[in-house]
User: Fold this.
Amino acid sequence: MKKICLSVLLSTLLFHLTACEVHWFDQSYEVPWYVIAIPVALFSVIMFYIGGKIISKKTYVCPVCRHQFHPSFWVSMVSLHVNSDRYFKCPRCGQKNFCKIARDGERDDL
Ligand SMILES: [Zn+2]
Assistant:
């Protein structure tokens, strides 16, 4: 629920902050919000999708029980991270921690 509220708030801010006026060779143009916001939103969605695909291919290790797991696409797409460590809930022990990538942690298949 927090993520949905935060997403709505950020989207509203994005739409309100993107309208602007452009000066081009002594002429002034009013740029509507959607000319800026829609490409930014599309770019963000594409980057989240690509990031989720790449991250869900990797194997992560739970620091508590050493269980190795592959995060789901959706969880990978929205997970917090510090460097390559990602914040996941371990499927075995249920602990939420920053998990490291396993040394041989990449799957070949998608
Ligand atoms: Zn665990």
Observations:
- The pocket of zinc ion is lined by residues 62, 64-65, 67, 90, 92-93, 95 (CB under 6 Å).
- Residues 2-103 form one domain.
- Residues 33-56 form the longest helix (24 residues).
